[in-house]
Amino acid sequence: MSAPEVVDARGTRCPTPVIRAARASRGRPAGTVLVLLADDEAARSDVPAWCRMRGHTVVVAREEGWTRYTVVLGGAAASGPAARPAPSADTGSGSTDARST
Fold it and tell me: Where is the composition biased (Low complexity) (predicted)?
């Protein structure tokens, strides 16, 4: 097994970390591991949301001053809607339904 590709987006701001991760994932098969490094606060919600939408899984590890996102690409790496949702490492926030009845 080869080492995962590391995408260093530290020092960039939203939406650059997600854009760089998306570009790195293009054309890669399911099961490929990417490591995204980011220090943008918005990435803490943006990266897991992108993973859920694309069918990837993500493990979030906070380091001092930045965060490491280990992303395992799912079946939607190259195209199409998410095959399965990625678990979120952030369990501190509840979800709410924003729809009006």
Answer: 77-89
